[in-house]
Write a structure and sequence with these properties.
The chain is α+β, with helices and mostly antiparallel strands and about 220 residues long. It is built from 7 helices and 12 strands. It has helices at about 20-25, 50-70, 100-105, 110-115, 135-145, 165, 205-215; strands spanning about 1-5, 35-40, 40-45, 75, 80, 90, 95-100, 115, 120-130, 150-155, 175-180, 185-190. The strands form 3 sheets. Strands 4-7-9-10-11-12 form a 6-stranded mixed beta sheet. It has a 3-stranded antiparallel beta sheet with strand order 1-3-2. A hairpin with a 2-residue loop joins strand 2 and strand 3 (about 40-45).
Amino acid sequence: MFIKEKIDIDLPQESRLLTLEEFWDWYPDGYEGRFELHNGVIVKMQPTGTHEQVAGFLAMEIGFEIKRLGLPLCIPRQGLIKAIDTDKTAYIPDVMVLDSAAIQDKEPMWKKRSTITQGETVRLAIEVVSTNWQDDYLMKLGEYEKLGIAEYWIVDYLGLGGRRYIGSPKQPTVSIYHLVEGEYTFALFQGQDTLRSNLFPELSLSVTQISQIGQ
């Protein structure tokens, strides 16, 4: 889970909503925490230990698959995805798989600002659900779809999301979204279901395996 905290910074009242450029300039140099920009407001994301265990496990398993297949992909430790139609919003996925060539050719903000602007560069984005689950199921889902990110996982290892998203009774669920003609289609996975990923079709992970990491 995350403890989500809005950060009050010393700016004139007329400048309270930051642009991404101002956010970059503000971001604490060398700080190990995680900050996102939500509609001009800086939000500090403080993950719990179990949240980090689940995210780390997924990154490790996917990393093994990338190495095994020799794929031209990489998993940054941390990086921002800029929203497509505003300069006041940017998110940090819990796990992000990037096209290594696209980083070099199409992402001028990457080397200096660790920021992705083109959805096609992101081959997979994963959000591990926290208590503010609406961010993942509503806000980020919509932004990632508009950007054209081909595959998006919502890993709800505690079954916190709304019943309209994960069913009733609530239980640990992984929702996998695939972009088809500019719109997301999705499938839900629960219990012993094995995840089905277009990017990693041979990956063998069940929801139970993932949820046990977060217990």
